[in-house]
Amino acid sequence: MENALALNTLQSNAKKGGVLCTLNLQDEKDVDLLLSTQDNEDMEKINDHVGEILEVNGLYVREREVEDTNDDGEVINYFKHTTILFTTDGKMYVTGSNAFFMSLDLICTFKGYPTKESPIKIKIVQTDAEQKGHKYLKAVIVK
Predict the structure, then answer these.
(1) Taking the CA atoms of the chain, what radius of gyration do you get in angstroms?
(2) For the whole model, what pTM was predicted?
(3) Interacting residues of 20 by C-beta distance below 8 A, sequence separation 6+
(4) pLDDT tens digits along 51-80
């Protein structure tokens, strides 16, 4: 369960602005790829690819704490995630969906993190949250 330990470490560091990156940051091409995600207009939104299967070979997740005020004026803190997927066809996909992050988190716990040597195939799924009246994204493992 080495992967589960790595995941728990990420989540416990999240309170400090945790980041997870499965790219090889010793490889200049991977560093350039990661840097290209900053203000990249070619990065595609995961929301636009519901129903598609992506072969993911890299992952970047940033978790940050957000402060908000509820209707009673009480300050509440919660975490938001930015997830960037790198795929074997050279594309990049981004989402801020916490539900997507949680589903991908679960996949990585059991399958390990996606790398160039060990990509993971996922399907992008949109699910109704009936009680809340909206939809959310999630990742589902594909064999």
Answers:
(1) 16
(2) 0.80
(3) 10, 59, 60, 61, 113
(4) 999 999 999 998 888 888 988 999 988 888
